[in-house]
Design a protein that fits this description.
With about 290 residues, this protein is α/β, with parallel strands linked by helices. The protein folds into two domains: about 1-135 and about 235-280, Periplasmic binding protein-like II (D-Maltodextrin-Binding Protein, domain 2, 3-Layer(aba) Sandwich); about 135-230, D-Maltodextrin-Binding Protein, domain 2 (3-Layer(aba) Sandwich), CATH 3.40.190.10. About 35% of the residues lie in helices and about 20% in strands. The chain has eleven helices and 14 strands. A hairpin with a 3-residue loop joins strand 2 (about 60) and strand 3 (about 65-70). It is globular and about 55 Å long.
Length: about 290
């Protein structure tokens, strides 16, 4: 299992070098008052149905939640959910690779219809996008070398912590722990490479992800004292602010999915990685009820 996930991470890095395109800014007008039509490239639910394609922003390097496998196919917990959305809407799916800092811009500009890229709902982000019902819960975690393990937040004082730009980890440590030096990267693959190269003392992102990464990289550990940092937040789909037709449809979809849909998603995508090291009830949220 560890060799398999490591191969996925390596394949993701290779894909990024050729497959990632930068987000371009475009002028997009607001939805009109009845929310049935949009100008520019931001699309209502009717627009999506007529086009026959749902555009979804996802990660390519955040296994096992959103990544590209060795065959160049999108895989992961977020992908499983995205495919169900497209199926129930009766359209094809088109994945667009995003990085953490570009998620708001991608959905705001209409580059994608929905962001399903492990997007944690925060007060700051609520001002920029509309979040649908949640489908996952998460806190922050820290992974470090087992030769110099970070056991508590105090161990990070004066040390270098690697984070991805535009993430809750960057926000949390900037606000609450100025004594920690942050080394920031655009991509998760770059961040993990920096940790492997010893350019930082530890790395922080969602605790679910650092645990999965440590399992596939046995020279690294997630100590109990840094396995659940800050508040427990929720992860949810996001759409352009004001795009109520798409938002309302996603909410109805989540609320009416089979009561064990995300458990099945977990079993298919996360359980092969976590094994018995994680309780699905500490991760999944069924039917938007947290």
């Amino acid at each position: 299992m560890r060799k398999s996930l490591l191969a996925i991470v390596i394949a993701s890095v290779a894909f990024l070098s050729v497959g990632l395109t930068a987000c371009s800014k475009s002028d997009v007008n607001s939805l009109n008052s009845n929310n049935q039509k949009t100008s520019g490239t931001v699309r209502t639910l009717d627009d999506i149905k007529k086009s026959g394609t749902l555009k979804v922003g996802v990660f390519s390097d955040k296994a096992p939640f959103g990544y590209v496998d060795k065959d160049g196919k999108n895989q992961g917990y977020d992908i499983y959910f995205a495919q169900r959305l497209a199926k129930d809407l009766g359209v094809k799916i088109e994945f667009t690779i995003t990085d953490p800092a570009s998620r708001v811009e991608f959905v705001d500009s209409g580059k994608v219809d929905i962001i399903l890229a492990n997007f944690t709902k925060t007060p700051e982000r609520v001002e920029k996008v509309d979040f649908a019902l949640p489908y996952m819960q998460v806190a922050l975690g820290v992974v470090s070398s087992e030769k110099a393990p970070v056991k508590t937040l105090a161990d990070l004082s004066g040390k270098t912590l690697i984070v991805a730009k535009g993430t809750t980890a960057e926000t949390y440590f900037t606000k609450n722990h100025p004594e920690v030096k942050l080394l920031k990267f655009d991509q998760y693959a770059e961040a993990y490479s920096a940790l492997l190269d010893g350019r930082g003392d530890a790395l922080s992102t969602d605790n679910t992800e650092v645990l999965a990464w440590a399992i596939s990289n046995p020279d690294f550990v997630v100590e109990q004292g840094v396995s659940k940092i800050g508040d427990v937040d929720v992860v949810a789909p996001a759409v352009k602010k004001g795009n109520t037709t798409v938002l309302d449809w996603i909410n109805k979809e989540i609320a009416n999915l089979p009561h064990d849909f995300f458990l099945e998603d977990y079993k298919a995508t996360l359980e092969p990685v976590y094994g018995n090291k994680s309780d699905p009830n500490n991760i999944i949220i069924e039917n938007g009820k947290f």
